Amino acid sequence: MTGGTGRIFVVGLGPGNAAQRTPEADAALAQATDLIGYAPYVARVEAGPDVVRHASDNRVELDRARHAVELALAGRTVAVVSGGDAGVFGMASAVFEAIDHGPAAWRGVEVTVIPGLSAVLAAAARLGAPLGGDFCVISLSDNLKPREVVHRRLAAAAGAGLVVALYNPRSRARPDQLGAAFALLRTILPGTVPVAFARAIGRADERVILTDIAHADPEQVDMSTLVLIGCPLTHTITRANGEKWLYTSRSVAAPCA
Amino acid sequence: MTGGTGRIFVVGLGPGNAAQRTPEADAALAQATDLIGYAPYVARVEAGPDVVRHASDNRVELDRARHAVELALAGRTVAVVSGGDAGVFGMASAVFEAIDHGPAAWRGVEVTVIPGLSAVLAAAARLGAPLGGDFCVISLSDNLKPREVVHRRLAAAAGAGLVVALYNPRSRARPDQLGAAFALLRTILPGTVPVAFARAIGRADERVILTDIAHADPEQVDMSTLVLIGCPLTHTITRANGEKWLYTSRSVAAPCA
């Protein structure tokens, strides 16, 4: 490694299906000498034998980001990879945070963020058109923010009639958090508001469960699930074959909720 | 045209750059016998001479959606196209709304929604990582919802510390609406909160303006602009060459705003 002309691509790999990854992402990955990221995402990238894979555990985003900057400043072309879109609860924010808090020289590194298809878009498409109105995207994880902030945001969003997409809905360390969120939302939304659990969309083990907020059961949700909570304008269409579509009306006649 | 085996693909074309369109979208478009959509989007699709292009004006989404269903039930393979993601203020919701309110037979039509890279994700990547925390996506258009609903949602989102992405920020019919939204947000957010105007990202006429909520000037915004309003945890990094990155901290130490 010699100094100078390295760079960082922060690449969103999409939901897990190569057909949902953009050509722009493929082109960036093809230039990489080094791949950095959470091990399952690094494993998803096809690369030649000369490419160095720096796979790491979850929860070490800042260490990973600093490592990427150091490699780039040493002249390597580094692809920092995330599932979905790297800007949505992925590695992009960690890379800039590392640079912002690092030595002044770190601001000289070239960083290009390549957007990817986020899980919320893939899940919504699989369900129909539940994001047809205004919506918000919230991480339920309390690793990085207090639970009261999460609850305040959920209440504000649901109270204002936004559809809510929840990332990181559940983990072994906080098995009760999703149930608490549903309990809060039941105090705000009519019980009939549709709720969808969209697991591993675009992958072989994809699974979709449709329910409503009155009956939503956290036990049916794992960390690979995108939880989508409708608003009072989210409708269900039942087809002759029993399949269902969800969509949210584009028109709001009067204040929703 | 003979009845029976038609279908609808609702396809998100991405932000306007072919490298940001997924292979899945290309594969769906390649099967289409008919293309339906707002004229500039239909014009973006390369297709053979046998493919019928039904380009229409803006604001006729439901007519377009009904036409797509009728063609599909007559045996055609119809691609209904939107810029960005068809599920985010695009045609997907209109297609399901048409089916929901149409004859019972319409529920038999096959509909597949192919997700696309939404403008908010492309704009965020171009800016750095402004969506690093929780965020919401709101259409400022009052064609389909009362202005008071828009304002209630903006106030709820900003008050709860969400980053706000605004679609359809301005049109000739409502030139003052964005200014009213900024005025509202100035009563809620510190004046230093970063604001970005990201116009036509991924296209030849791309343009980015960075400012803050105290100084945000609606005159710099047109209908092709994605307006991104940070939260108090959105930071600016200034590089030695004068370029700037925006990112939002992943960590929330205490209630934001």
From TrEMBL, chains A, B:
Transmembrane segments: none annotated. Pathway: Cofactor biosynthesis; adenosylcobalamin biosynthesis. Residues 8-215 form the Tetrapyrrole methylase domain. Its EC number is 2.1.1.131. The keyword S-adenosyl-L-methionine applies. It is an enzyme of class 2 (transferase). One of its GO terms (molecular function) is precorrin-3B C17-methyltransferase activity. InterPro entries: 4pyrrol_Mease, 4pyrrol_Methylase_sf, 4pyrrole_Mease_sub1, 4pyrrole_Mease_sub2, Cbl_synth_CobJ/CibH_dom, Precorrin_MeTrfase. Keywords: Cobalamin biosynthesis, Methyltransferase, S-adenosyl-L-methionine, Transferase. GO terms for biological process: cobalamin biosynthetic process; methylation. It holds the Pfam family TP_methylase. This is Precorrin-3B C(17)-methyltransferase. It comes from Komagataeibacter rhaeticus. The lineage of its organism: Bacteria, Pseudomonadati, Pseudomonadota, Alphaproteobacteria, Acetobacterales.
